[in-house]
Amino acid sequence: MKKAVIAALLLVLAGAGIGWGLSAPTRMSAQEAALLTEGDAARGELVFWAGGCASCHAAKGADGEDLLKLGGGLRLETPFGVFVAPNISPSEADGIGAWSLVDFANAMTHGTSPGGENLYPAFPYTSYVRMSAADLGDLFAFLKSLPIVEGKAAAHELGFPFNIRRGLGLWKRLFLDPAPVIASPLNGADVDRAVWERGRYLVEGPGHCGECHTPRDFAGGLVLADWLGGAPAPTGEGKIPNITPVEGGFGSWSAADIAYYLESGFTPEYDSVGGEMVHVQENMARLPASDREAIAAYLKAIPPVSAGSD
Fold it and tell me: Domain for residue 44, yes or no?
């Protein structure tokens, strides 16, 4: 009996040790970090708008120059608790002013803070992991040029077990993947491959469209088989639409319709953009027309998903 208890205890300890190791925060390799270079703030501004940084990190209702004051504080209510967007202004005390470029890249692509903590995926690093080293450097340069905002944002409001950050290391092993979601355009799609790949990069990477438009499983991971097929709103109110080329829905829009919607906010039926998509559309309108056209080309040549259609 005593031997059985000891054996069971050893198994528990071994399992705990393995779990502890697998849940450890990860960082960029030396080879990956070597690809990072100090970027260009002018180019970084376009990455900033593509990534929608102001939508979460500026004050609620901010407009004009206030969109560049990234003091955080936005409350994101989810089934797992309330996440509060942090200060990412250049404040050394309260924002990211004391971060290095490698610190920034580790947060963006590995969900790991400079202090070695796992970050919550309310920050969409599961999409940002697909960003290029050049864009990361440019974005960091732009963020460093913005106004300093003093004051830390409030803490997240999370109950057990979601307040245990270490467990996120296991979650990231399941759901953090830099590989493209869609490998290639649909067979027979009449599309310029380079344009389509630019659209894929913007949608799957900095634009992080899948974070809202794709359903999630019980653990909060994206169900990639239903990529962009629509999902319940994170707030529990309403639904985020299917934006795959499904018949009778978004698929009836032409590529020109999609590009014009992203530029103007008007649908082919002359309805105007609403809800949280207002911020996204305003961000997309700041990009070059070629980027909006690339996004449209990508969306028209991905597999349709019927399960999430309206």
Answer: yes
| Cis bond before residue 161 (omega within 30° of 0) | yes
In a domain, residue 81? The reply is yes
Measure the CA angle with vertex 169, ends 166 and 175; round to 5°: 145
**Helix (H) / strand (E) containing 212:** helix 210-213
Q: What is the pLDDT of residues 217-245, one digit of tens each?
A: 988 899 999 999 999 887 667 789 999 99
CA 249 – CA 138 distance, rounded (Å)? 37
CATH number of the CATH domain containing 290: 1.10.760
| pTM over the 0.70 mark | yes
First to last CA, the chain: 60
Same-domain status, 121 and 36: yes
20-28-138 Cα angle (round to 5): 140
Half-sphere exposure of residue 290, counting CA atoms within 13 Å on the CB side?
6
